[in-house]
Amino acid sequence: MTRTSQKNPVRGAVVLITGGARGMGELYARRAVAAGARAVALWDIDEQRASALAADLGRSGVDVRAYAVDVSQPGSIRDGVARVREEVGAPDILINNAGIVRGAPFWEHDLMNDIEATIRVNTLAAMWLTREVLPQMIADPSRPKRILNIASAAGTLANPRMSVYAASKWAMIGWSESVRLELAAAGHRHIAVTTFCPSYVSTGMFAGARGPLLTPIMTPVQATAAAWRGMLRGTPMVLRPWTVKLAMALRGVLPTRTWDAIAGRVFRVYSSMDAFTGRVGD
């Protein structure tokens, strides 16, 4: 492993990004190109938008390709991985970024379009895809490998009108941290797993949501910068902003009813989704 690759695991790497056509996925792609990736695979259900971004980024000289992949379907994931391996090589860096949100009381959620779709895209897709690429990552210790899993602060703290989304991200965090520990215990230290837990990010996905007290809504640039730094360093968990850690600590030590009162009346966490509308078309 060269000194350069230790400092910059992206240089010369094949980077695969789910939900790569817009928002934070696009920003990760731009960072990968700027950091000297050999190839970038953009996975998105919106093939037209992904192709336009690939053409734009490809002018840099980096091999950027768009793939129409529905990550909610394991067959689509398997086919997508096979195509990436054949066309640009096995992924060295995986960014599990694709996600959806449905904001409503649990009893208003549709079984298929809301509950199952959220779990498939936010949780199972990352598991399915990582299972496809991880054995080859393990078998190739010649360069550092990275897995960046985009979770959410909602996975650290319950919140009304986010029951299914929160459940999907709680599962993502538990799975991601467990895989990290398993890899370390097995001696596969060339692979680092980072879990990113941001509060609200202004991508449009959470349109209408309000940041709790002392928790400003982050811009996509701020969020991706924090996640990217953590991924490069192999930081196990990145939580932003700092109030996410504070809320976790308070929730851990205070009685539940006391925390409910503080979260609801002081920090206004429990009302943050009251005006949620979400991105039009999602």
TrEMBL record:
It comes from the Bacteria. Keywords: Oxidoreductase. Residues 13-231 form the Ketoreductase domain. InterPro entries: KR_dom (IPR057326), NAD(P)-bd_dom_sf (IPR036291), Sc_DH/Rdtase_CS (IPR020904), SDR_fam (IPR002347). The keyword NAD does not apply. Belongs to the short-chain dehydrogenases/reductases (SDR) family. This is SDR family NAD(P)-dependent oxidoreductase.
